[in-house]
Amino acid sequence: MISLIPAWLSAGLGVAGKMLPAIGFAMILNVMAKKELIPFVLFGYIAIAYLNLPVMGVAVIGTAIALLVFFHAGKENGESVEEVEVEFEDGI
Q: So where does this one cross the membrane (predicted)?
């Protein structure tokens, strides 16, 4: 079945397949176009593409970094988080 595919079509699909990582990276940058997030995107891309780390490992590292940034972001500005008591009512 594969032998019936013309060589020009097979070569074109090969070129398109090699372009997919660049297109995916451009789509990610398009969605996450904030200047503050670009170092994190580059770290994830380099960790997976060049260091050959597994996606799950990079996801765990990214989650840890995100939690650190989230919990320490308010402390840099001298802000504090106040606890708020909320009263719940029974029913819908």
A: 43-71
DSSP 37-62: THHHHHHHHHHHHTS---HHHHHHHH
What's the pTM? 0.47
Q: Residue 1: count other Cβ atoms within 10 Å of its Cβ.
A: 4
What is the end-to-end Cα distance of the chain in Å, rounded? Answer: 60
Map tokens 């260091």 to a residue. 51
- Kindly tell me the burial class for residue 47, based on how many C-beta atoms sit within 10 Å of its own C-beta (0-12, 13-18, 19 or more): middle
Interval 55-91: pLDDT, tens: 899 999 989 988 998 888 767 665 555 666 767 676 5
Collapsing DSSP states into helix, strand and coil, what is residue 20? helix
